[in-house]
Design goal:
mainly alpha; about 100 residues
């Protein structure tokens, strides 16, 4: 899990993500993956959440990490940030991690 301070300067945030990307480059037994529903936002600018998750996936890709090999990005249309929506796709998580 990556923790960041929302008050950090954008360049500092990007450095945190780049460090994460570098740290996971050699992983072979676990594939981290940003997973975000398009309706998970809250607050005054809810669209920022999905845009930030897309940027995270982009940074990982630009850092040379292979999607679906080193990480997996999933964006789920109209999914919200709650247990109901997580449960609807949890089988996909298990299949991805452990196979059929």
């Amino acid at each position: 899990m990556i923790f960041g301070d929302p008050r950090m300067e954008p360049g500092q945030k990007q450095n945190v993500i780049r460090a994460f990307a570098a740290a996971i480059r050699g992983l072979t037994d676990y594939i981290p993956g940003p997973d975000m529903g398009t309706d998970e936002g809250s607050g005054q600018y809810p669209e920022r959440n999905i845009l930030a998750t897309r940027e995270l996936a982009g940074i990982m890709s630009r850092a040379g990490l292979s999607e679906n090999v080193v990480y997996r990005y999933r964006e789920i249309d109209k999914a919200k940030h709650n247990e109901q929506f997580w449960a609807e796709r949890f089988d996909q998580v298990l299949i991805f991690l452990f196979g059929k």
